[in-house]
Amino acid sequence: MRAAANVLLCLVGLLVGSGQGKHVIERQERAVPYSATVNDQPVVGILSQELSYLMTQNYGDDGYDSYIAASYVKFVEGAGARVVPIWINQPVEYYETIMSSLNGVLLPGGATWFNQSNGYAEAGRHIYDIAMQYNDNGDYFPVWGTCLGFELLTYLAANGTEHRAHCSSSSQPLPLNFKDDFRKSRLFARAPNDVIDILSNEPVTANFHQFCVTEANLTAYGLDEDWRVMSVDRDWNGMEFISTIEHKSYPFYGIQFHPEKNIYEWVPNKNISHTANAIRASQYFADFFIGEARKSEHRFANEATLEKHVIYNYQPIFTGLKRSSFEQCYMFQGNYTGESSPVGEDERMDNSSSLSLVSLTSCMLPLLTFFFTFVPHVSLGSLL
Ligand SMILES: *[C@@H]1O[C@H](CO)[C@@H](O)[C@H](O)[C@H]1NC(C)=O
Ligand SMILES: *[C@@H]1O[C@H](CO)[C@@H](O)[C@H](O)[C@H]1NC(C)=O
Ligand SMILES: *[C@@H]1O[C@H](CO)[C@@H](O)[C@H](O)[C@H]1NC(C)=O
Ligand SMILES: *[C@@H]1O[C@H](CO)[C@@H](O)[C@H](O)[C@H]1NC(C)=O
Ligand SMILES: *[C@@H]1O[C@H](CO)[C@@H](O)[C@H](O)[C@H]1NC(C)=O
Ligand SMILES: *[C@@H]1O[C@H](CO)[C@@H](O)[C@H](O)[C@H]1NC(C)=O
Questions:
Q1: Are 34 and 26 in contact (CB under 8 A)?
Q2: Which residue segments constitute the domains of the chain, with CATH numbers given?
Q3: What confidence score (pLDDT) does residue 176 get?
Q4: Quick check: helix, strand or coil at residue 303?
Q5: Which is the closest atom of ligand 2 to the Cα of 117?
Q6: What's the rounded Cα separation, in Å, for the pair 370 and 30?
Q7: Which one of 29, 40, 277, 328 has the largest count of C-beta atoms within 10 Å of its C-beta?
């Protein structure tokens, strides 16, 4: 993939400077940029991620070092957009170039540390900064974070300060506890009433996370000025966490739960709701995000250039057969050389009650604390 990435850099290099459309924008003080664009051929980037612990065990020998879970790809495709994978471990120029042709970026969930060098969070930093620049210039550009991606958004907004709390919300289906003014948010302002009824009353949101962002810390870290909280939920121990959030002046959105799992993930024993209502509510989030992407004017220079980048160049593999909680993943051979990743969301658990390493699932697992607390004799080496 190194060669492929180099080719890709050359190709998109030709596009620099041509991707920035002109926009009819009315800027208001601290308001989200207005966009009159309707782009019915949206193309969304999905950030790849270093392999998790289980994936490194199962696939590391095959030379893979980054991946995208296929459910995120389907989530975007199922709402009417095409997907381009975004690589980790690239120079900032790569992100500038690729984003100049994309209509939005999805930061997926998964399992990795934010401090890992050349990984997900570093790429996220570039993407976040570039997306802010676009929007500051009136160039509408949405960013969506799911689970770990949501946590990454607030982490980046806090300038890379860790502010998450440990919590316990794995295999936990929950309704959303909406704030009184949630209808004033962009994410929910035009949501159909039946979708709101489902989300408010039925345990349809699929939670798999062991970090939570709390309202207390949103305030403590100065993030509440820029971010609006639309709903909160409680983990297995009753700890309250933010479940939906949006930026007040950029089209940036974060959700702690996993709508793509309701529609596309079938691992047993995770209590992921597949009811018709769960699917309807989950699809709302995909439709909303792609609706935002339709407001972006960026384009690839031509169809042939897009074809070089689109995810169709890669084939997903059936990772569910090897205990991953992702049925399918796109596995990439890159040049990523970082530390191994922690255990996380990708682990398929046959056995939710047994407290083994691989049975702990989350979109980001604070495993070391757990380990040093409960299993002090196990060395770091055997863990990572
Ligand atoms: C990985 O790829 C990037 C972009 O092509 C390059 O700048 C970097 O030097 C590569 N890293 C390694 C360790 O080969
Ligand atoms: C990254 O964070 C994890 C969890 O806090 C910690 O255990 C690890 O040592 C850190 N790694 C680096 C390179 O700082
Ligand atoms: C992050 O850094 C920027 C630039 O230094 C600053 O304007 C902003 O207030 C900081 N935000 C937080 C939440 O610390
Ligand atoms: C706030 O963030 C800190 C990390 O800075 C974390 O240790 C703590 O648990 C968080 N507290 C709450 C209430 O979210
Ligand atoms: C799955 O979640 C539902 C809704 O919270 C709950 O009623 C049910 O008991 C759970 N099933 C299992 C097997 O945990
Ligand atoms: C659950 O774990 C136990 C102990 O590891 C094992 O014997 C059992 O077969 C597992 N059950 C399933 C359904 O995998």
A1: yes
A2: 43-333 (3.40.50.880)
A3: 98
A4: helix
A5: 13
A6: 41
A7: 328
How far, in Å, from the CA of 204 to the mean position of ligand 6? 27
**How far is it, in rounded angstroms, from Cα 262 to Cα 258?**
7
Catalytic residue among 163, 209, 247, 258, which? 258
Closest C-alpha to 341, from 375, 369, 364: 364
Distances (CA, A) of 159 to 86, 121, 163, 210, 327: 22, 11, 11, 21, 34
pLDDT bin (cut points 50, 70, 90) of residue 30 is low
DSSP reduced 3-state for 245:
strand
The three-state secondary structure class of 211 is strand
Pick the more confident residue, 151 or 11: 151
CB 378 within 8 A of CB 371: yes
Question: What's the one-letter identity of residue 55?
Answer: M
Q: Which helix (H) or strand (E) holds 67?
A: strand 66-69
106: left (phi over 0), alpha (psi -120 to 50) or beta: beta
H or E element at residue 227: strand 227-234
pTM: 0.80
Provide the angle, in degrees to the nearest 10, between the axes of the packed helices 2-13 and 92-99.
60
Residue with tokens 């089209």: 251
